[in-house]
Every structure is written in C-alpha cells, then in structure tokens.
Amino acid sequence: MSNYIAQSKSPIDRFKSYLNGFSPPKNAIELLTIEIDVEKQEKIGLTLLKDLVIKVRPDTISHGKVKVGDLIMSVNGHTEDVKMAFVNISKSGVKGVKVEIARLCTRFRLPATALKNLGIALQEGYDYALNVLYFFRDIPTNLDVVHIEGRVYVGSVEVDSSSSLALGQGDCILSIEDTKLTTTQQLHDLLKEHSAKSCFVRLICEMPNCDMMKNCVRSKIQHAAPDPPIDLPLPADVREILRVKRETDAKTPQKKAVPILKTKKGKEAEAVQPAQTVDSKNKAKNIRFHEETRVQLFPIDNDIKLLVKPLPPKNANEAQQSVKSSETPPK
C-alpha cells in the first residue's frame, strides 16, 4: 500500500463524481502502487474516463494488474491528465512505469460466528463472504442471475462491468442488506431501491471453494432456464444526453457509401456496391474468375459477399481467349 500524495481532491471526492454523487466509505478505499513494464509502441490496454478505468483489454500489459473501477491517481508522479501521460509513455517506451491507484474494496471474508448470528447454515465445500456491489455512473452493472430451487445464482458477469468486481460465476446471493433473497425479481427491486439512495449495496454470498463444487454449480446453471440480465436505469441527465444524441443522429444526413470494387474493363467499368461495408484488411487485392461465368459470388468475408458481373467479350478473339482461360482454373 502506498502513501497517498495530497491532491486538490481526495480519492473519496474523486470517486463521488463517478458514484452518482454518493461518497464511498473511507475505510473501503485501498491505495496501491503498481509497476508496469512498457515496451516502445506496446499497447497499455486501458480505456479511461478522465482518471477512472472503465475497460481493460485482455492480453495487454495492464491485464491482471489494473481493474475496472480503479482510479488513477498518478503516473510516474504526474497527477494532471493521466490519460495523456499513458500516451506519452507508450510512444517513448519508458520502462518501469509506476502507477498509483485508488481501489474500492469489494470482498470481505465473514467468520463462522457472524454467519451463525445471521441464521445462515454453513455447508461443506463453500466459502462465505460479504461482497460490496458499487453503482458506477459510467460502468454498467450487467448482472446475469439464475433462479434455481428457491436460490439466486450468478449465471455470468461481464468482464468490464461493476458486477465483476464483487461477484463471480456460480456465487449464490443469500441476502441483500440483511434481506433474505429468494427470487430474481426481488433482487432487481432491491438493487433499484438501494441505487437511488446509496452508491453501494452489501451482499452475503455463498461461493464454492473447490473444483468439484464449482463444476456442480456450473452444471446447475447450464441446465437452468436463464433469466433476463439485470441492469440499473441510467440517471436522468444521462438519458437526456442520449436522447439528444439520437435526435441529432436522425437529422444528420447519411453519407453515401463509396464502391470498393470495380471491374477494370475499359470505359464500361461497372462499380459493384456490397450490402455492407468491408474493412480494408478484408478487401481482396487480386480477384480472378472465369470470363464465361455470368454471375459469380466471390467471398470477401465470412458474412459478406460481392456480386461480380464480368462484361461480355467484345469480339471473336476475346471470346476464344475467354474459352481457353475457362479451361484453366484461376490460381
């Protein structure tokens, strides 16, 4: 844990702006110093909203070290515009980058005595914990739950969601803020209720602690009927911004798509327009086909095909050449 250098805003104040105006508990913030080795032109893999991490790309140097929801306090001592500091480091290839972050604690182990006082019967092969789910303004909840035999299990969680910080696949949510949980609709109603008056909610969860129990729970989830994923409504100001954006996009005239493939046959070259836009990487540079074929579907991508109509030969000599070329398959 690193000593926090005094800034114009404390971590609590910075988190408050991302947690719908609510302040997190002071003892729930952990200050860390992380070292990242960066090679020149190597991708760091972070998507930042000012100083908040909202996405971490897999298979990058930040994966496994930085998490979604982390607050970047400084990068190599630079506290202003940390996003640009990462860009400069990636271009220059500076090694040994030190990143100071503030992280919200989301999981706390519960002792057996506390569980007995709550009336929870312990089962062998499971661990029990107090998990804290935070409601971020710009990070979706995206909690997928399944109802099995009167209990609510976590079916899956997206990697870049706030649910992934506190919950995992196969976790059984026993209670929310001391309220016993029995249905998925009850879970949705309680999350919506607490998100309106706080930035977090406390969940008591039962988690399998061995591979055998994990496989049993996953098998139950796989054969159960899936429930619709739970996500919380956006704040009113965010909904207004999205509404204005949709209206602006509807009024903006769409640009005409440019043909990406032409048959190079003199002045009568025919432009062929595909149904969808194809990336430049997937464009075919050299396309050969039988001249005598009137219509041919040439695959450009797995889901996109171009309709190519070659022109008929102009004279008898070209007709003979086309017949000869049709006998030899194109390379």
Automatic annotation (TrEMBL):
Biased composition regions of type Polar residues, renumbered to the chain: 317-331
Domain PDZ: 33-83
Stretches the record annotates as Disordered: 311-331
Source organism superkingdom: Eukaryota
PANTHER family: PDZ DOMAIN-CONTAINING PROTEIN, SPERM MEIOSIS PDZ DOMAIN CONTAINING PROTEINS-RELATED
Protein name: PDZ domain-containing protein
Organism: Mesorhabditis belari
